[in-house]
Structures are given as structure tokens and as C-alpha cells.
Amino acid sequence: MWYFAWMLGLPLAVAMGVINAVIEENLHHDD
């Protein structure tokens, strides 16, 4: 069932990307 893997994997990958971007942003605003 590849579609089930995509249904779980794709949002997870997007969420990971968003979280990573937020972390990167926070690290760069290191005053």
C-alpha cells in the first residue's frame, strides 16, 4: 500500500522541513 506510506510520509516530510526551517531561523537570530 504505497499510497498509505505517501499519506503518512509526505506530511511528515513537510512538517520536518518546517521544523528544520524554524530551528535554523532561531539559530541565526542568536543575539
From TrEMBL:
It comes from the Bacteria. This is Cytochrome bd-I oxidase subunit CydX. It comes from Chromobacterium sinusclupearum.
